[in-house]
Design goal:
The protein is mostly beta strands and 545 residues long. Helices cover 3% and strands 48% of the residues. The structure holds beta-D-fructofuranose.
Length: 545
């Protein structure tokens, strides 16, 4: 859903909520069970209420911070605040009190909301917000003012989106808004008419220029805008990129990351990541990326010879991976991506309560040359292997005769599960795995189309939106030795990493009976699997922190 249509709804919703409703959710006094049907067991979801984009991903003193777009009062979008959770291992999360709660006047009308943004640790105290031995954590976010008001003596029009900052001296627990906000009141003059749609600043330290850089968007113009700053307070516009690739919907949540190509530290490329809504590869929200260079001022895209230079390159081909951004300061220089596991098309209707939406399990990004093209590859963070509990089934090689064969899983076969295999379709036109018996999610390789796919048309509860029941495909080259597949099966989702991670699909599924079985299938011929392993995974909510 475009934000322009979400805003008026939100204002009505907020008015209805009125003063009687406390706007802060208290921190849980004891660890909540997180054990409801469809509750993700492998990645974070808030105990209660609505969540969307990950925000302010930053590492400090042993903690990975996850801030997120949160409605603390309802299980649909509204009252946008920054929720907060922390983890020491990217797997187990502790939900903390709100970091930046929505602001309302005495009549209950919203005066300020906190849209998406990012956070850094100001190690060198460039902002002056820190104290000796205590660097400030500084967040930049889109401040949204639904009603006209004055701010620092200036009139702000109703619906303004401006970039503001806040800082914390206690590891993100409490925040002070900068008195001179907003720090970027409007986009460059030629985009000023877009005042409603100027948002999602992602900032990071740019070492070659000894400065801070940020990417933000003029959403309806399909432009990423780049800014620089010496102190996190004064920002100068330095360049822009777009429209390019897919521009069917608004551009949101940009990110810019530098990565070595094929693991060679001497060969580095920049990747510009853009979320797009609608117009994604599976309908509704989607994410695309561009590979190129960043000179400290602007991004220039590589034009690979012999390719359709403007064909979009999708980061995830499933329906449920959006607004993904990377961590600042992750140890070891790792590029870790977290995305919202939902879609604006039906996000507010998914059948979960008392919460809605999870963040996907964090992924590590890389660049690899695949078929001559520098390509983004993704894998679940290595930490995820620690969740493996028992090997339920393993075989070095097996033929899948035409038809379907149950995988004999020792003991409980309910999600969460991890499946790994190398799939050779052989003479089959389609082959792969089916999850569940009555409610079935099919994951396979389609030889005629040359795609890996997730088919959720019969996956359980699908009727809440007409476009949910669908099959999603990702083109992938089939190596001679077979296609490596890694599949994470959670209570409310499946995620497929194919090849080296160049084709990824993230899909929510709601199997009302749970995942009560796994089978291998092959259509029109015989297929083969090698190194098939199925593990049960521990729930992140059940292990001690
Ligand atoms: C993306 C988005 C952002 C915005 C936020 C509002 O999902 O629309 O552009 O900042 O959600 O909650």
């Amino acid at each position: 859903m475009a934000l322009t249509s979400r805003l008026p709804l939100l204002t009505i919703g907020a008015a209805l909520l009125s003063a009687g409703c406390a706007s802060r959710s208290p921190a849980p006094a004891h660890a909540p069970a997180h054990d409801e049907p469809f509750r993700p067991q492998l990645s974070f979801s808030p105990q209660r209420n609505w969540m969307n984009d990950p925000n302010g991903l930053v590492y400090l003193d042993g903690e990975y911070h996850l801030f997120y777009q949160h409605n603390p009062n309802q299980n649909t979008w509204g009252d946008m605040s920054w929720g907060h959770a922390v983890s020491t291992d990217l797997l187990h999360w502790t939900e903390l009190p709100l970091a930046l709660p929505v602001e309302k006047d005495a009549g209950g009308k919203i005066t300020q909301m906190f849209f998406s943004g990012s956070a850094v640790v100001d190690h060198a105290n460039t902002s002056g917000f820190g104290q000796p031995g205590k660097p400030a954590m500084v967040a930049i976010y889109t401040a949204v003012f639904p009603q006209a008001r004055t701010l620092n003596g200036k009139l702000v029009r109703a619906g303004t989106q401006a970039q503001s900052i806040a800082y914390s001296l206690d590891r993100g627990r409490t925040w002070t808004q900068y008195a001179g906000n907003p720090v970027i009141p409007a986009p460059p003059a030629q985009y000023a008419a877009e005042y409603r749609e100027f948002r999602d600043p992602k900032m990071f330290w740019y070492e070659p220029g000894h400065k801070w850089v940020l990417a933000t968007v003029a959403a309806q113009r399909h432009k990423a805008l780049f800014y620089s700053s010496r102190d996190l307070i004064h920002w100068e516009w330095t360049g822009e990129f777009g429209p390019a690739g897919a521009a069917g919907g608004v551009w949101e949540c940009p990110d810019l990351v530098e990565l070595p190509v094929d693991g060679d530290p001497a060969r580095r490329k920049w990747v510009l990541i853009i979320s797009l809504n609608p117009g994604g590869p599976a309908g509704g929200s989607g994410m695309q990326y561009f590979v190129g260079d960043f000179d400290g001022k602007t991004f220039t895209r590589d034009r690979a010879a012999g390719t359709d230079a403007d064909a979009p390159r999708w980061l995830d081909y499933g329906a449920d991976f959006y607004a993904g951004v990377t961590y600042n300061d992750a140890p070891g220089g790792r590029r870790l991506l977290v995305g919202w596991m939902n879609n604006w098309l039906y996000g507010e209707k998914v059948p979960t309560a008392p919460w809605r939406s999870a963040q996907a399990l964090p992924r590590e990004l890389g660049l690899r040359t695949v078929n001559g093209h520098v390509t983004l590859v993704q894998q679940p963070v290595a930490e995820a292997q620690r969740l493996r509990s028992r090997l339920l089934f393993g075989t070095p090689a097996q033929t899948i005769a035409r038809g379907a064969q149950a995988v004999p899983l020792a003991g409980a076969a309910r999600a969460p599960l991890e499946l790994r295999m190398i799939l050779k379709p052989g003479t089959a036109t389609r082959a792969g795995v089916r999850l569940g018996k009555d409610a079935v999610t099919e994951i396979g390789y389609d030889a005629a189309q040359g795609v890996v796919y997730v088919d959720r048309t019969r996956s359980g509860a699908t009727g809440f939106h007409p476009q949910f029941a669908a099959r999603h495909t990702a083109p992938v080259a089939l190596p001679e030795a077979g296609l490596p597949l890694r599949i994470l099966v959670d209570r409310g989702s499946v995620t497929v990493f194919a090849g080296e991670g160049e084709a990824v699909l993230t899909d929510q599924v709601f199997p009302t009976t749970g995942v009560d079985g796994v089978s291998l299938f092959s259509v029109d011929g015989d297929a083969h699997v090698r190194d098939l392993n199925v593990w049960s995974l521990n729930s992140i909510w059940k292990e001690a922190q």
